[in-house]
Design brief:
Layout (H helix, E strand, L loop, with lengths): L15 E5 L16 E3 L3 E4 L4 E4 L8 E4 L11 E9 L7 E9 L4 E8 L6 E5 L6 E4 L8 E8 L4 E6 L2 E6 L10 E4 L11 E9 L5 H8 L16 H9 L2
Antiparallel strand pairs: 1-15, 2-5, 3-4, 4-15, 5-14, 6-11, 6-15, 7-8, 7-14, 8-9, 9-10, 11-12, 12-13
Length: 243
């Protein structure tokens, strides 16, 4: 069973650029560098782990965002992931789940839930088009773990749903003309999701299929925030001399 990312070895990953537990309105920790703006009072209600960001059942104006690319340029590798549950099943348009945009090398990267004339699907858009599509009706009962990776050198975007690879596609440059990161909307502040989110992370590298699976299944090495800091040799000798 999964545990919060900040209680796993991924919390210590050098490429973790932003992490949001989404426990409450001031929860920009444990990574406060890229604090989110809460637009129109997103609520924080019971979610997958503890509380999560709840956009409501008929969202017309709520989302979380920051006018930054999180230090991840458009020509950089990228992994986005979150827990996601629909509050109201989609009956038209798009629910944008996660969106990252960088004006550096002009590329955006987003995952959304698409009504698609009733043939509902998840879409990874890493090229300004449908990089990956996965036919699924999410419903309003189950939580899903969504992860998307971008390998610039490998020219590939991959969509994972509950740690299962649902397909890959090629990348292309597009023109967002903005630096932004959004939860529950796209980089134009539209395509709002009536959904709830938990445990959101952005990495400036491609997480492997094994790492995503290990996170989803709770198999990562645990990390404790409450252990004492390690001592160097001189500190250890000095402390031992007191005994």
């Amino acid at each position: 069973m999964a545990v919060e990312l900040w209680n796993t070895s991924l919390w210590n990953d050098a490429y973790l650029k932003a992490y949001y537990r989404l426990n409450d309105a001031t929860d920009n920790t444990p990574n406060p560098t890229y604090g989110l703006t809460n637009t129109n009072s997103v609520a924080f209600n019971p979610a997958y782990f503890d509380n999560g960001a709840d956009m409501g059942t008929a969202n017309t104006n709520k989302y979380l965002s920051i006018a930054s690319d999180l230090g991840i340029a458009g020509n950089s590798d990228l992994t986005l992931m979150t827990w996601f549950k629909v509050n109201t099943e989609i009956t038209s348009g798009v629910y944008n789940i996660l969106s990252h945009a960088s004006n550096t090398n002009s590329r955006y990267f987003q995952v959304y839930y698409d009504y698609n004339g009733g043939a509902r699907r998840l879409v990874l858009d890493a090229s300004g088009a449908y990089t990956v599509t996965y036919a699924i009706t999410l419903g309003t009962t189950n939580w899903y773990h969504i992860a998307a990776t971008r390998s610039v050198g490998g020219n590939a975007g991959i969509l994972y749903v509950n740690a299962v690879n649902q397909g890959s596609g090629t990348l292309a440059a597009n023109t967002p003309n903005v630096n932004s990161f959004h939860i529950g909307a796209d980089h134009t502040n539209s395509s709002l999701a009536s959904a709830i989110y938990d445990d959101n992370a952005a990495f400036s590298r491609v997480l492997s299929a094994t790492e995503i699976s290990d996170y989803y299944n709770g198999n990562l090495t645990p990390f404790s925030h409450f252990l004492p800091k390690p001592m160097n040799i001189l500190q250890a000798v000095e402390r031992a001399s007191r005994w």
